[in-house]
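Lab notes, practical 5.
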Amino acid sequence: MDVSQYLEIFIDESSEHIQTLSDCIMALEQEPDNKDTINEVFRAAHSLKGMAGTMGFKRMQRLTHDMENVFQEVRSDKIKVDSAMIDLLFKCLDAIDSYVENIKATSDEGTDENEAIIKELNDFIQKEEGETTEQAQPEKPAEEEHPAEASDGGNDDKFSLIEVTDNEKKAIDEAKEAGQKIYGMTVYIQKECLLKAARAFLVFRAVEEFGQILVYRPSSQDIEDEKFELDFSFLVASNEDLEKIQSAASNVSEIEKVVGKEVSEFHLEGEETAVQEKEQTAAAPAKEEEKKPASEPKKAAPAKKKAVVGKPATSRTVRVDIEKLDLLMNQVSELIIAKNSLVAISSSDGSDNTQSFHDQIEYLERITTNLHESVMKVRMVPIENVTQKYPRMIRDLSRTLNKKINLVITGEDTELDRTVVDQIGDPLQHLLRNSADHGLESNDVRVERGKPEVGTIFLNAYQEGNNVVIKVGDDGNGIDTEAVKQKAIERGLVSPEQAENLSQKEIINFLFMPSFSMAKKITDISGRGVGLDVVKSGIEQLGGDVEVSTELGKGTTFTVRLPLTLAIIQALMVEIRDEKYAIALGSISNIEDIPVEDIKYVQAKEVIHLRGSVIPIVRLDQMLDIEPKEEEPDHLTVVIVQKGDQQAGLVVDNLIGQQEIVIKSLGKYINGNKLISGATILGDGDVALILDVNTLM
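Output from the prediction step:
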């Protein structure tokens, strides 16, 4: 059994349990006596322990086991939850998360034993029992839950009347001739165990470090299929002492006890026998350094240790409602019908073929549009996948900065494409940290200003047309635009004269420049010059944009707009000279036919006055370095594009029409040119470049 094949599932499910633990521990801080939350923490820790044990990640298993032990005491009302315990539990969570990150990167948990955390966990229990901290044993076994009672050989004696097949008898005789001892062993699994077959597999791996399993009762296939109750038995041939083998088997988690004896006589099935035996019962002894066998239960010889080496496993899965898949399947079947209809038309000679062909093309277009929508829905995940990590982060920041902070998150069920959700986490996290560190004043200052002592940071997400809008803000000090202006003058970005004519928006835009930080001192939270420019570039890479609104003394709000999906978009196809270009339809507000004489100049830049707005003109042929026309036309076709509340007019030669396009990345080929966001392949096989409106603006 190769457990590496389950690595992705393990990573996904571990991440879910870690998030559950984080949410529950946060809730416990507010309601320390909530039994439901306490039980949920215990269940999540128990599940993590079992999963880690099944995968062979012993360090992670040991840590989660000790965490589970503490919560067993909390459930029994022997220990009370306090702030010290909450801090320790978060330390545990960070350590577990670190194990999972290591596993993602290398398929291995790493070498960190986290002894200090384990000692602290054990101290909680020992204080209750009146023991001193010096007696703490970090090496406490991870399976010391239900000490087995000594067996008298009665009901536990599964080998008193052992019957073997002819082939099994031959294998036993060969082992005895080679000087090996034959031990009969029965393993009892705890009642709460969820994965009995996995526990059996781990027992077999542990035992086969010392010998060769010759007989399985029930059969190895039945054990693999979980066709047994809470115990299973086997015969093992070994040169080692029985105690060592029992100890190895007992060290597997969720094993109640292991009964073993040396068996000296056997007979074939159907005959009677007397068995001479030496019996001994072992119950989960103190854990020694565990071996890492890698042989399968059915293999005869013990295998050498084998390291699991694989490419980094990352989360590449999306959970999908079965109804969405049913709808998808239905549309694929319609696609097949449409294909068959087209094949039938192409092979017939009827006079009405042209009309039938056009009808089928229309039908095909409807199906592909519906199919696209269905696939997009399958790829969509709630933004909650990202935001659920933030309450814990804000709690830690509140303690680090010594500020009282309340985080309010709304619109968590707003859905985005999975690829967008995966990449938006860091920019949003940076904005929240920025609000906590720079935005909110200290508690004393807030009280002096007549504000509530507890500062509020909010994150609000909602859908707006083909975009998702995420607002991140605070009720803090707001941005001091005068201070930003002075900093810009100091750095030589503008002269004092130019600075006087800058609008508030232009001043705030300095904050998005590389290495432009307003932090007065460097901390772990901010002020290292990795500032809002990283946020801006990260959001623009996703086809989005970010804007800032602020009022001194009242607070600041960052508004992030993101496309719902990155894969397929509706676009307007335009022509500049003989080349075709695509502009995302979501960026276009309207299209105008402008007489050349209507073009005016502001500071030597071309603009048009349209319905009360002054809109700058962008000559795309000049931007794209295309040869100018020999003669200037009387009228210009201008595509008015919008980014937030900014507008610009793009001058094009011709409009081709609206089209659904599939975005293809150009990779490293045009890395330096941010004007082009990708390309698409048209119906005639031509390649059209996609213009990035955000960069144009």
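Observations recorded by the TA: The chain is about 40% helix and 25% strand. The radius of gyration is 34 Å.
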